Amino acid sequence: MNALSLDTVLLSEDKKSIVILDQTLLPGEIKYLNLSKAEDIWEAIYALRVRGAPAIGVAAGYGIYVIASQIETDNMDEFCKQFKEKKAYLDSSRPTAVNLSWALNRMEKVLDENRDKMTVAQMKDRLCEEAHAIREEDVAISRNIGKLGFELLHHGDGILTHCNAGTLATAKYGTALAPIYVALENGWQDLRVFCDETRPLLQGARLSAFEMQTAGVDTTLICDNMASITMKRGKINIVFVGCDRVAANGDFANKIGTSGVAILAKYYGIPFYVCAPTSTIDMSMKSGDEIVIEERPAEEVTEMWYSKRMAPEGVKVNNPAFDVTDHTLVTGIITEKGIAYPPFDKAFENMGIK
Ligand code: MRU
Questions:
Q1: Alpha-carbon distance 159 to 150, whole Å?
Q2: What is the pLDDT of residue 3?
């Protein structure tokens, strides 16, 4: 079994539910969930059953379509009113990954542009088309990021990655792991991947290590606090990470711990690349200071994964799910349209990103 063959998010054949691979059970169990209620789709995003910025965007597109298809009215004004309420509800599931609101806004734009031209039934079909388009485009975008990232690699390279920005985090291929899939397709068997385990939710240990190992890549799992010694020992030639939101100046939010990896990479002189679909670039935010960081429950730190609670009762816990890496630490941002190099605001402008 190769994780690349697993679909992350789909629409069911009867179009009545979204089908997601429950990532909270990986790698032990491969289980798909059929979700049609707004509350269940919200919970699946909040609980990281479907996760990773692009996959969240795909789930949001299909999710709002499925929910909208249940609205029982022929009156377009009423349909739009209920659509917007449900959209706002789904949008509240997680704050940091821009792809959630990006996909929901894209679906709403279809509504706003066509509400005077279509019946409600036609609108439902049009929304379904748009949700499929978001998924299909994501596959193509990830592939392009993979091809561009592959050009940066050399035989025998050691690659460090943080969290999971692989096929499970997208519709297919991933962003940060896509260059490695492209390398495999080109017959390269000599890359070495180091996966940070990524406390507290272990996306590196449970998902990236699973993806890379099942793909046949030489995979080593390290605890987050082992990145420094691994770099010092000369095992890492390049760092690839994903991202949840990039600000106009190139600051970016990604899984908690990413900024520490970037600081280490700078210290050891290792190139540090961010893999980002252009949908993740949020030009409305001037710098990373404006990015909202998700705070998650303390239990993820104190007891989750342990056979018994490991922290004293009542201890204060901070659990920010993301951090912001300063653009000065970033070598380049690999988008589907090309690699952006500093100054990032100019590079984004030249790529036509608004
Ligand atoms: O909390 P998660 O697992 O959704 O966080 C995922 C990440 O931080 C990924 O690196 C990011 O979303 C990019 S996925 C291509």
A1: 12
A2: 96
The phi-psi region of residue 202 (left if phi > 0; otherwise alpha if psi is between -120 and 50; otherwise beta) is: left
Query: Backbone phi, then psi, for 42, in 5-degree steps?
Result: -60, -45
User: Candidates 3.40.190.10, 1.20.120.420, 3.50.50.60, 3.60.20.10; correct CATH number of 3-142?
Assistant: 1.20.120.420
Q: Looking at the annotation, which residues are catalytic?
A: 244
pTM of the model: 0.97
Determine contact, residues 244/96, Cβ cutoff 8 Å: yes
Q: Which of 48, 51, 98 to mutate to test the pocket of ligand 1 (most atoms within 8 A of CB)?
A: 51
In terms of CATH, what superfamily is 153-350? Answer: Translation initiation factor eif-2b; domain 2 (3.40.50.10470)
Q: What is the pLDDT of residues 182-228, one digit of tens each?
A: 999 999 999 999 999 999 999 999 999 999 999 999 999 999 999 99
Among 270, 2, 277, which Cα is nearest to 152's? Answer: 270
- Residue whose Cα lies nearest atom 8 of ligand 1: it is 255
Residue 302 CA to residue 326 CA, distance in Å, equals 29
DSSP string for 104-116:
HHHHHHHHHHHTT
